[in-house]
Design goal:
Largest interface: A-B, 60 and 69 residues
Oligomer: heterotrimer
Chains: A alpha+beta, B alpha+beta, C alpha/beta
Strand order of the largest sheet of chain B: 8-11-7-2-16-15
Largest sheet of chain B: 6 strands, antiparallel
Helix content of chain C: 40-55%
Radius of gyration of chain C: 21 Å
Number of strands of chain C: 11
Strand order of the largest sheet of chain C: 2-5-8-1-9
Distance between the termini of chain B: 70 Å
Shape of chain C: globular
Chain lengths: 333, 674, 331
């Protein structure tokens, strides 16, 4: 997101508005520095009437005219009551946010072009109930949280991410219009949210099964393949699946069957296989392959310049592979 | 994605409808019925939309509906710039808004309109029940606003509770504003609510009119005296003078009503004030009557704004009374008018006017008396004596024929004040004595708690005035001749069993209820005195009483102090409330250290232990190393070793020693050079 | 007499009394600890931290789980500890065909006396090294773990107390190895700490190559303290002061594990208590009368690592994150 915003800014001429925005950001970063846990207090909170609040003032003004022209004291009283409510409202709105603590729990990796989610905890230490707190990135809907009976709540906030890599999220906006929606109290906080964004998966052809480009057919002997090799005496701890039941039934001792495979039939997702495409497309295709292989349960490895991950399966492996793709250096040329 | 959130959930809708209903309910009686139905139908439609059974109306349909409502308004109201059409328009805008109640914004618009509709109720009437109802509607509307925020807030108890809390907290400031805020007076002429007001003394008098009034116990006037109080038989509250008789009905006649050219002295002092005679000072609070007539003792003068004096010694208001009105009066009722200005010939003619024919028997009887050579006063006493001997005072007089005076004087001989006054003036005019009928109220009931006189509609009365050369207009009450109790003790004792015979609940017969009613009236009076009639004059008085002297500084203090106190209290409440448990002093002090170091360029990482941090500082900023080391050690001893002395030392370090820290690293070479 | 503890002012009266008593016997905590650490350090090179952790575990009366690959010196550590502390020591190699009776003991009918006689199993010793505990069946595992928790053994309806102190050092292979039965969480919780030794540093390895056979060295180790001193030290752990600020920090840590979505399961109250106790022992080992946040951070990976469950990533990473996310002073 930050990346896109910056690029958008670069496209614009450097206007005065741009200058002021930068100035504001700098001021904000001094006033509300980056931290993974932030307690909202008066130095971080801002408050202004909403558009509904201005409408309310308009109604108050019209009521005052009505009261003045009809010399009607009850209408005056009502007018003043509404004014007084308007005066005390900001205190309530402010109190609804003040003292809340936000903490970044975790961020989840996402694919470029998708929404990345940050998991955030909101908690209060005092007795006051809090309502209708919106936590969001500007332009996004974000999450609405209530802290009524409970003192702490976890929720997810999503941010659309467009480019792969480590993406530093912009400031989060914490906002509340409690109690009447006439005032908006907000704070822009930097929870140090950083997303790991994988490349956008793009189909780049079928999985390159059996297309080992490196070293060819004569790989080292690996234990644990598909081909049956020999029997060895059973040792406690050997897998029961590999027990030689037939031999055992024939009255011999317990043996384990040993398997091995000689050829490197493993799936290598290789950078070199995708020659002729640009960097990002290659990464996207590799990403797609990795997902496919994981889905089909085929052990896969990754070879990109600078990184080689041996074939394996499982969540962790997938995260490693995708992470390597995400952090592949950007081609600035 | 963002639209979904803006769509109104069920609770919001129901709250909006509740708020609209509460705001509209008291207006329904005044509004044309079709508006109520239209509103109900719109609500029904919107709920159907919510259930998914129907769609919101499309643009052509909406356009049609708008056309229809405008046409309906045009048909229902001929006048556009009046209060009722305005309320109707607001009610209709509710209705139409319901048909496109989609987003949160629409909800806000609808609820803000509701505030306005609730306020128009007060324009109609400012009595206590209305005020209470208005308060309830504001409560509900505010709750509805609060309920727009979410499902938790929309729970009835929560929303109403919040609303009550907000309004309660706002009340002190509201009272302050009420007392302090200046009242500017009308900025332009506004349409009045012409539907208000009730029966009362009208500008004509036909047989039966006052009988009708005698059945109403509604308050008409409340009069508080400042100084001497006139005795009961002197309490004649003059309101109208009828000079023109057409054989059946008495009217004011041409050229009296200020609306058609009657002369009125609007400014005080325009007319010379009497210098002698007993003077009464009093304040009259008059209920809305829809007419401009005010009521006062004879020979009144008033300084209140918008009140003028007519030539026939009455008070009138510039505009009709559409709501309660209070005015201060001084009266010289027994002003002998030492040298009365002689009656002009036009006035004399006017007060001698009779229909050309009719009531022949009366005319013949008067003719007989005149032939006997009796003067004006003698004829008057003859007639009064006759009333006293032969006539009966009743609230249910028999119907009279065409020659109503004849029929009354010679046949039925039973009547009410209007019969006596009408026949008396007719007779005197026939005798060539200028005479006129005066209508107004007579008597009143003491409300001792407040020491004011409560005059009810059934105290309406008609009497006569005759012109006696050299003495001017003299009041004659023919009713007093037949029923002196009426004048002394009021209608109730005079009419006996007949009094309030038709009323459903004979309240006047039950003592406790009578007392209760008076109590209630007292509360009303107080309400009116303190709240409804609080004007810039009273405001000045009140402020003067509170402040002694109104100087800008005192005013500012008076206004600012409570506001500051309230805001400070609320701020304190939020700060204390949000703090939960206070951070221990040690940790706060260490926080000071961390911030200072962060400014120096080395911020503590979250979770970093003090010693690690100190080491990092030492490595990066050698000139701060010693200080950091010392603070860290002291902090550890204070925070974890529980040493009280360490806390003191830490405080010293971070309050004073901190100031001596070098801002920039000391240049080692320079140091060596020295 | 040199102060045994950095600052006397910070000590509770009980701690001061205890330390004085020990000093009068010719011991100081500082001396004992440094002696023990250097002794064990002579056989297990470059593992001072782990040795200290193991010692802290022992001083806070908890059991120790060492998880590492074979040949890293797990057994050596256990053996050396027992030797230095002067405790009776038994070793059991767990296998998959092991039965509970093999550990607890068995009643055997003796013909001479015509009675059943109970033969105590290896569990009846002061230090029990349970080697490769995850190779045995869950049934056997749970028998041992029950004994660890209750500090007594019920065989044939008779309850027999275990010797005092009773200290189990269990080792296990990393779970990825084949033929293992993972310890369930409830039983992992019985171990106060889980540590891993890791590969030695280069210097340590070089010293290993050059030096004498560690096994011979092991035999040379002499007891440094007696049972009563050990017990006194154990009771001293309880006297170490934990201030409000520290307890706040501990509370926040624990709360965070329970609230954060990172952890599938937060720290149990027993885990929290273990954390505090271990931190106190750590503070004592470092000659301090009060606990510092560093103490908690030092023992946190060992105490909490095996107790926390995460959706992704190991418990250690989780602990790492935990330490970064919870500040030592309240925000």
């Amino acid at each position: 997101m930050k990346v896109t915003r910056e690029s958008a800014q670069q496209a614009q001429p450097k206007t005065l508005r741009h200058f002021f925005r930068r100035l504001g950001e700098r001021w904000l970063s001094r006033r509300a520095p980056r931290a993974r846990a932030i307690t909202l207090n008066h130095s971080r909170l801002f408050i202004l009437p909403t558009r509904a609040g201005l409408g309310y003032l308009l109604v108050v003004a019209v009521l005052w005219l009505l009261a003045t022209n009809y010399e009607n004291n009850l209408v005056f009283a009502l007018t003043f009551l509404l004014i007084s409510v308007f005066v005390i409202l900001p205190v309530h709105t402010f109190a609804n946010l003040s003292g809340l603590r936000l903490q970044l729990l975790s961020t989840e990796p996402a694919f470029a072009g998708d929404f990345a989610e940050a998991k955030i905890n909101l908690s209060r230490e005092d007795k006051r109930e809090r309502e209708w707190i919106q936590v969001h990135w500007p332009t996004e809907e974000g999450a609405y949280v209530d802290l009524c009976e409970e003192r702490s709540a976890d929720f997810r906030v999503a941010l659309p991410v467009l480019e792969r890599g480590r993406v530093q999220a912009p400031r989060l906006r914490v906002e509340s219009r409690f109690p009447l929606g006439l005032f908006r109290c907000w704070s822009r906080i930097d929870l140090d949210v950083e997303f790991l964004v994988y490349p956008r998966p793009l189909a780049g052809g079928p999985l390159p099964l059996g297309e080992a480009l490196v070293e060819g057919e004569s790989g080292p002997v690996r234990r644990g393949g598909d081909d049956y090799a020999s029997l060895k005496p059973y040792q406690p701890g050997d897998s029961l699946r590999h027990l030689a039941w037939k031999q055992y039934a024939a009255g011999r001792d317990l043996y384990s069957k040993e398997y091995e495979s000689r050829t490197d039939t493993r799936l290598w997702l290789d950078w070199a296989l995708l020659d002729g495409r640009d960097v990002e497309t290659r990464l996207s295709n590799l990403c797609h392959w990795a997902l496919q292989a994981e889905k089909q349960g085929i052990a896969y490895g990754l070879r990109v310049p600078g990184t080689t991950l041996p074939p394996s399966l499982g969540m962790e492996h997938q995260q490693r592979v995708l992470g390597a793709l995400a952090l592949f250096p950007k081609w600035d040329g | 994605m963002s639209n979904n959130r803006d769509l109104l959930p069920r609770e919001s809708l129901l709250w909006i409808f509740a708020a609209q209903f509460v705001a509209l309910l008291p207006q329904l009686a005044q509004l044309p019925l079709w508006i109520a139905f239209a509103w109900a139908f719109a609500v029904y439609w919107r709920l159907e939309v919510f259930r998914g059974r129907r769609d919101l109306p499309g643009r052509p349909l909406k356009f049609l509906v708008i056309l229809l409502t405008v046409a309906g308004l045009a048909l229902s109201y001929q006048r556009w710039f009046a209060l009722e059409p305005m309320v109707a328009l607001l009610a209709l805008s509710f209705t139409l808004k319901n048909l496109e109640l989609v987003s949160r914004r629409d909800a806000f618009v609808s609820l803000l309109l509701a505030y306005f509709v609730a306020a128009t109720l007060f324009v109609r009437e400012q009595s206590i029940p209305y005020a209470l109802y208005g308060l309830i509607s504001v409560l509900v509307i505010t709750a509805a606003l609060a309920a727009q925020l979410g499902s938790f807030s929309a729970r009835p108890r929560r929303a109403l509770g919040l609303s009550v809390r907000l309004l309660a907290q706002a009340t002190p400031l509201m009272l302050l504003l009420f007392v302090v805020m200046p009242r500017l007076g009308p900025l332009w002429n506004v349409p009045q609510d012409t539907s208000a007001g009730r029966t009362g003394v009208s500008d004509s008098m036909a047989p039966g009119d006052f009988t009708r009034l005698s059945k109403s116990a509604e308050p008409a006037l409340r009069i508080a005296f400042d100084g001497p109080i006139p005795p009961p038989e002197q309490r004649y509250w003059r309101g109208l003078v009828y000079s023109e008789f057409d054989g059946r009905t008495w009217r004011q006649g041409f050229g009296v009503d200020p609306r058609n050219g009657g002369q009125v002295y609007w400014k005080s002092g325009e007319r010379p004030l009497p210098q002698v005679g007993p003077r009464y000072r009093y304040r009259v609070i008059q209920e809305a009557s829809r007419s401009p007539w005010l009521f006062a003792l004879a020979r009144p003068a008033s300084d209140s704004a918008g009140v003028g004096e007519t030539l026939d010694d009455r008070l009138v208001k510039r505009t009709p009374l559409y709501s309660r009105f209070a005015y201060d009066v001084r009266s010289w009722p027994r002003d002998p008018q030492a040298v009365p200005i002689p009656l002009s010939s036009a006035e004399r003619r006017r007060n001698l006017q009779l229909p050309a024919d009719g009531n022949e028997r009366t005319r013949a009887w008067v003719e007989r008396l005149r032939r006997k050579g009796l003067g004006a006063e003698a004829i008057s006493s003859q007639l009064l004596a006759r009333y006293h001997r032969e006539f009966t005072y009743t609230l249910s007089p028999p119907a009279l024929g065409r020659d109503s005076v004849d029929a009354f004087l010679f046949d039925s001989q039973k009547g009410f004040c209007e019969h006596f006054a009408g026949s008396y003036v007719f007779t005197m005019r026939a005798a060539g004595v200028p005479a006129r009928v005066v209508a107004g109220y007579q008597g009143g009931e003491w409300v001792s708690g407040e020491k004011y006189l409560l005059v009810r509609e059934y105290d309406a009365h008609a009497w006569a005035e005759i012109w006696l050369d050299g003495r001017g207009w003299q009041r004659v009450d023919p009713t007093a001749a037949v029923s002196p109790e009426r004048v002394r003790n009021g209608l109730e004792s005079a009419a006996g069993e007949e009094f309030m015979r038709d009323s459903l609940l004979p309240v006047h017969r039950i003592d406790a209820l009578v007392k209760l009613r008076l109590q209630w009236d007292m509360i009303n009076y107080r309400w009116y005195q303190t709240v409804v009639s609080f004007d810039s004059e009273k405001q000045r008085d009140t402020l003067q009483r509170l402040l002694g002297d109104i100087s800008p500084l005192r005013m500012a203090l008076f206004f600012a102090a409570p506001v500051a106190v309230v805001l400070l209290a609320m701020l304190l409440w939020t700060r204390l409330g949000s703090r939960g448990r206070r951070r221990p002093a040690v940790e706060r002090l260490y926080g000071v250290f961390c911030r200072r170091m962060a400014r120096a360029g080395i911020a503590r990482r979250a979770g970093e232990a003090p010693r690690d941090y100190a080491e990092r500082i030492s490595a990066a900023k050698p000139h701060l190393a010693e200080f950091a080391e010392r603070v860290t050690q002291t902090f550890e001893r204070a925070a974890y070793g529980g040493e009280a002395s360490a806390l003191k030392e830490l405080r010293y370090l971070l309050r004073w020693r901190l100031l001596l820290l070098p801002r920039v690293p000391i240049n080692k070479n320079k140091l060596a050079g020295q | 007499m040199a102060p045994v503890v950095e600052s006397w002012r910070a000590l509770t009266p009980g701690l001061i009394r205890g330390l004085r008593k020990m000093s009068s016997n010719g011991f100081t905590v500082q001396k004992i600890v440094s002696a023990i650490v250097s002794d064990i350090g002579s056989v297990l090179l470059g593992k001072e931290r782990q040795v200290k952790l193991a010692l802290a575990c022992l001083l806070s009366k908890g059991h120790l789980l060492i998880e590492d690959l074979p040949g890293m010196g797990k057994t050596t550590l256990a053996h050396a500890l027992a030797q230095v502390l002067g405790l009776s020591y038994k070793r059991v190699q767990f296998t998959s065909d092991m039965l509970p009776a093999d550990i607890l003991g068995v009643s055997i009918f003796e013909r001479e006396s015509g009675q059943f006689h109970f033969h105590e199993g290896p569990v009846f010793s002061q230090v029990l090294l349970a080697d490769e505990i995850n190779r045995s069946s869950p049934k056997t595992q749970s028998a041992l773990l029950e004994a660890m928790e209750e500090r007594q053994v019920s065989v044939d309806g008779e309850t027999r107390p275990l010797p005092q102190p009773f200290f189990v050092i269990a080792t296990q292979n990393p779970l990825q190895q084949s033929g293992t039965f993972a310890l369930p969480e409830s039983q992992l919780d019985r171990f106060l700490m889980r540590i891993s030794l890791g590969y030695p540093t280069r210097e340590a390895e070089r010293a290993l190559f050059l030096g004498a056979d560690p096994r011979l060295q092991l035999a040379k180790l002499k007891p440094r303290i007696d049972l009563s001193t050990l017990k006194k030290m154990q009771s001293l752990v309880g006297q170490v002061k934990a201030s409000d600020s520290l307890l706040d920090y501990l509370e926040r840590l624990v709360l965070h594990t329970r609230q954060s979505s990172d952890c599938a399961l937060g720290l149990s109250p027993r885990g929290a208590l273990a954390l505090l106790r271990a931190a106190k022992a750590w503070a004592l080992i470092h000659h301090r009368g009060h606990v510092l946040p560093e103490d908690i951070q030092a023992v946190l990976p060992s105490v909490a690592g095996h107790r926390l469950q995460s959706d992704g990533g190991s418990g250690d990473q989780l602990v790492e994150r935990l330490m970064r996310q919870v500040d030592i002073i309240a925000a």
